[in-house]
Specification:
The chain is built from six helices and seven strands; from the N terminus they run ααβαβαββαβββα. Strands 3-2-1-4-5-7-6 form a seven-stranded mixed sheet. The chain is globular, with a radius of gyration of 37 Å.
Length: about 230
């Protein structure tokens, strides 16, 4: 039998004390609090940036993405110098005008202001709607019309003036299409890239602002003379 240290009675056994969770020093708690705050702000910042990028992409994509076409014709807005050169090539001409792949409507609106009955064909519906709004804002919606259509499915035989901001891959095929459809008194105005086989009657501008004008009667006459 065990004896107590202090007397003759039995010693009362000591109960083990339960240990609580370890206590962190105050400095550690402060650091952990700052880390949690930084983590929350990081998540919030990432969400804001991500949402902004999605919004920009959704708003800009209809304007900068090429519409689905037989040949890709991306939307690149015409510069003020290019518009000026196109208008110069239309000097002293009358009749109807068509812009093939009219984009945001700048050429059509400029032509309407010069007195032309102008039409734009564009496959991208967002750009067509925006062009119609611009024509209304500029006060020429009565003489500037825009249609959603694939250029390869449209006949241009009714137009006396044709404007095209093309790409090299499409110019040969378009050259054949226009030569079959247009009347002899029509004029074709090419911007940025010339047609591969036609000889231009007039050229103005330089670099990316260069504009080539082709009179249908001229190159048709040259073709007939070569055949003879």
């Amino acid at each position: 039998m065990e004896r107590g240290l202090g007397g003759g009675g039995a010693a009362t056994p000591e109960m083990p004390q339960e240990e609580g969770p370890p206590r962190l020093p105050p400095d550690s708690l402060e650091v952990e609090g700052h880390s949690l705050k930084r983590s929350k702000w990081g998540v919030l910042f990432t969400g804001i940036v991500g949402g902004a990028l999605v919004a920009v992409y959704a708003g800009a994509t209809p304007f900068i993405a090429p519409a689905l076409r037989k040949v890709c014709l991306p939307f690149v807005p015409a510069t003020s110098k290019q518009i000026e050169n196109v208008v110069r090539m239309l000097g002293h001409r009358r009749g109807s005008l068509v812009d093939i792949g009219s984009g945001d409507g700048r050429i059509v609106i400029a032509a309407a202001k010069e007195g032309f009955t102008a039409v734009g064909y564009e496959l991208n519906p967002w750009l067509v709607w925006y062009s119609r709004y611009r024509a209304w804002r500029e006060g020429v919606h009565g003489s500037a019309k825009f249609y959603i259509s694939d250029l390869w499915k449209v006949s241009f035989s009714q137009y006396s003036n044709v404007v095209i901001f093309g790409v090299p891959q499409m110019m040969l095929q378009l050259e054949k299409k226009l030569e079959l459809e247009l009347e002899d008194d029509a004029r074709v105005i090419a911007c940025r890239f010339p047609f591969p086989h036609w000889t231009p009657d007039h050229i103005t501008g330089e670099g990316t602002d260069t504009v080539w004008a082709y009179d249908v009667g001229t190159f048709r006459g040259r073709g007939k003379s070569l055949e003879n």
